[in-house]
Amino acid sequence: MTHFLLIAASSLALAVAAMFDEHFRVPDASMIATVSLPNGSGTTVSSGIDIGATTKLAVNPGNYELVLSAPALNTTQLPDGSKITYSIVTGGNANLTVPTVIIPGVLIQTGAGGAGAAAASVTVRPPPEQLQQYIGMEATNSGSGNASAATATMGANF
After folding, report:
1. Which of 58, 59, 85 is nearest to 70 (CA)?
2. Is the distance from CB of 48 to CB of 117 less than 8 angstroms?
3. N or C: less crowded end of the chain, CB within 10 Å?
């Protein structure tokens, strides 16, 4: 009987540990932001994902991860030496007209070797103490390429 209880307790401990795994794996299809990349030197900002109201302590719980995906870019879109820098932003309204950068330079694509830049993605957990009701991303082009036909996406995993 003692062995059975030990095995049952071990199984329960593994099940509970799996529930609180540090990696979120379930994407929420309703929580996706997209941004068309800039035409030439400049910055574009996505619309915001509504992450809900803050707690009574004015803190958003932040129990999720963000997955930012940047597209592959050719040399017309990102010439050699040009960079597109992606940052995570937050704000008080859905169109993020006055965004606050909370994670600068989370992903950087650099044109090189006459080949543009490969697609890339990064997963981050936003700092809950800095979040406002809406979260999004911005893309800043340092060069002259026209990447406006390309789109970056950001989604939330729970």
Report:
1. 85
2. no
3. N
pTM for the predicted model, two decimal places: 0.80
Report in angstroms the alpha-carbon separations of 134 from 33, 37, 49, 89, 97: 11, 20, 5, 9, 11
E strands, the chain, in order: 27-36, 42-45, 49-50, 65-70, 83-91, 100-110, 120-124, 134-141, 151-157
Q: Which helix (H) or strand (E) holds 155?
A: strand 151-157
The tens digit of pLDDT for each residue in 34-65 reads: 999 999 999 999 999 988 765 555 555 566 78
Contact indicator for 134, 91 with CB cutoff of 8 Å: yes
Residue 55's pLDDT is what? 52
